Amino acid sequence: MRNTISFMMPIVFSLWTGILTASPVVVDEPAVCLQCHDDITDAMKKKTVHSALKSGKCSSCHNPHASNHASLLNVDDKSLCLNCHDDKSRENLHSVAHAPVLEGNCLFCHSPHSSDISNLLKNDIQLLCIQCHGEVNNWYDQKYIHAPVADNECQVCHDPHSSANEGLTTEKIPTLCFGCHDQGISLVSSHKGYDLSSAKCNTCHDPHASSKAGLLMPNQHAPFEEGECQSCHKSGSKSSAFELVADVKTVCLGCHSDMKEENKKMYHHNIDDDHSCINCHNPHASPTTSLLAADQKNLCLRCHFSGEKFSAKPREEYITHNHLNCSECHTPHGSNNDKYLVTVKSELCDRCHGDAHRSTHPIGEDVIDPRSGKAITCLSCHKLHGADFKPYLVQDPKMELCIQCHDK
After folding, report:
1. Distances from the Cα of 31 to the Cαs of 27, 39, 47, 53, 146, in angstroms?
2. Per the domain annotation, does 316 fall within a domain?
3. What are the angstrom distances between the C-alpha of 397 and each of 184, 299, 321, 371, 382?
4. What is d(CA 110, CA 98) in angstroms, rounded to the nearest whole number?
5. Which residue, 101, 110, 265, 283, is the most exposed by fewest CB within 10 angstroms?
6. Who's near 132: CB < 8 A, 6+ residues apart?
7. Distance between CA 403 and CA 364 in Å, rounded?
C-alpha cells in the first residue's frame, strides 16, 4: 500500500501542477462564432452595429455553452440591456415612462445586433410608433400636419424612454413649443394679447395634425370659435394669464345649466372638484366629440384602473366589450346607480344580451347563488373589466368556475 501511494503521489502532483499552470484557452471572437452564425457577418455590415458586436465580444451578451435563457443569453432579455444601459432601469426612469421601457422590452423597438437606422431601431420612427399608436395613420390624412410629424421626427417633441412631463414630452408646454415658435408680436396679437408664458398650447392646437389651419382642433367651443374669450376669461387680467371670470364650475354652469340636475344625483362625477368640468373636457377645442380632452378610452384611463391594485396587467386590458365607449354603460356626469351605470345591472346587460341565458344557465330573482344567498346576476360569473377568461368570466369555465356552486 505504501509503495502504491509513493508511486501515485508524483503523478497527482504533476497533474495538479499542470492544472494550476495551464494557460487559459484563447477564443478568437467573433471568428469562432461566425463559423456557424454566418448571418451575423451580414449584420456587421449595416450602418449601426451594437458596440458589443462591433468589438467582437459575443460573450458580452451570450453564454457560449449553455444558458437558462433563450438565445443563450447570459441573463434574461429584460435585464441584459441594463448591464450597460443602467440609466434605463426602473429606479432611474422619470415619472412618465414609455410602456416598452417600463416592461423591459427593449427589443420591441431596438435590434440587438445591428440596423441601418440610427440607435439600432428596427424600423423608421413613423412605422415603429404606428405599431402601438395606430392613430398616427390618421394624422397623415389631415390637411395640416405639424412639421416634426411630417418629417417623421417624433423625438423632436417626445422622449422615447421616459420624461418628467405628460405625454413623454422633452420639455414642459409651452417651453417645448416656444423652442420653435417665437413669441413675437404676430403670435401675441393672434392670441388677443393674452400672456402666453404659462399657456397650454395643446388645449387649442393639435400638436400632430388637424383639418383646421394653425393646427386648431376641429371641434371648437362656441365662445372660442367666435373669438369671444371674455365670455369666460377676464380681459387684460394682471394677476394671471387667461384668468376666469369665476371658478370653473360657475363659468360652465352659466351656459350648461342642464348639468345642475346631474349634480343633484347620488353620484356626480367631479363636478364639485376644483377643476370641475375641465377634468374631462377641453374648454377651447377638442379632436373628439363633446369637447372631451381625449377619446373616451384614453380619457377614462387617466384616472381609472391605475395604482398598485391594477398593476398586474397592462391598463389597456381593462378596456371591455370590444372597445365600446365607456358611456355606453356609464353616465359621465351623474347617476343614481352605483358605478354611474346608465341603468340597474341586469337591465343594462339585457340591452344587448337579452337572449344570453334563455336557454343556458338560469338567472334572476328566483335563482339563488349558494355562495351569497342572493339572486344570481350577470356579475355572479362575469367580470366586465380585466377578466382573465372569455367571455369576461371570473374563473376558468372548464372547472373552477362551475364547481363554486356545483361541487357534486
Report:
1. 9, 13, 20, 12, 48
2. yes
3. 65, 33, 19, 17, 11
4. 14
5. 265
6. 99
7. 20
User: Would you say residue 189 lies in a domain?
Assistant: no
Task: Identify each DSSP E strand in 38-121 by its residue range.
Answer: 48-49, 96-97, 114-115
Question: For the whole model, what pTM was predicted?
Answer: 0.73
- The 3 state secondary structure assigned to 294-334 is CCHHHHHCCCCCCCHHHCCCCHHHHCCCCCCCHHHCECCCE
Strand partners, 268: 334
> Tens of pLDDT along 42-66?
999 999 999 999 999 999 999 999 9
Per-position DSSP letters for 116-158, written without gaps between them: SSGGGBSS-HHHHHHTT-TTHHHHTTSSEE-HHHHTT-GGGTB
172 domain residue, yes or no: no
| Residue 301 in domain | no
Q: What is the pLDDT of residues 274-329, one digit of tens each?
A: 889 999 999 999 988 899 998 888 889 888 887 778 877 777 788 888 778 999 99
For the beta carbon of residue 207, count every other beta carbon within 10 angstroms.
18
Integer Cα distance of 160 and 205 in angstroms? 22
Q: How far is CA 391 from the centre of its chain?
A: 24
For residue 348, what are the domain limits?
Answer: 312-403
Say how many residues make up the chain: 408
Cell of 161: 424612454
205: which strand partners?
216
